[in-house]
Amino acid sequence: VVGLGCADPPPQLAAKVATYAEELIRGYPAQGPPGDPHESWDAVQQQLGCCGWRGPQDWERHGDTTRDEDRDGAIACSCLRAPNSTRETPWMLPHGRCPTAAPQDIFPRVRHGETGGSRSSGEGAPSDRQLSPQGCKESVQAWLAGNLVTIVGVCVGIGLAEV
């Protein structure tokens, strides 16, 4: 049945998801209208409170095909935490890359009990926000593992509908 073809064993599925996420990060546009995959990655980072696949440092790595000068020192705006935002009421960030000023501003760690930056400027300059310090790998893999039965069920349903 065709639907069963979409259900890779978990290790293969995890490897495919990792490759796909890394390709999305490498091809992420500096500005302009987002494509559907990039909007989806923004949503993943904002909803899961994570940044990059392994961490914010993923945004510093660029392959030879992505030497866009606008990308130097910039990360996805969806990695930034805004002051006074929560998972229930996320602050909407612009799509694209937000410049970061200095290395010490790029990966600030949030101590337990702290929220984002200390200022609330409405504009939300990158220095006023904090990056999500962890990567999305563990959160995405946990979500996939928790929803694997549903994913396989949808694949089987699609396969049966094709027959």
TrEMBL record:
Places the protein is found: Membrane
Superkingdom of origin organism: Eukaryota
Membrane topology designation: Multi-pass membrane protein
Region (Disordered): 102-133
InterPro entries in UniProt: Tetraspanin/Peripherin, Tetraspanin_EC2_sf
One CC-aspect GO term: membrane
Record keywords, A-Z: Membrane, Transmembrane, Transmembrane helix
UniProt keyword annotation of Amino-acid biosynthesis present: no
Listed name of the protein: CD37 protein
Record organism: Pomatostomus ruficeps (Chestnut-crowned babbler)
Taxonomic placement: Eukaryota, Metazoa, Chordata, Craniata, Vertebrata
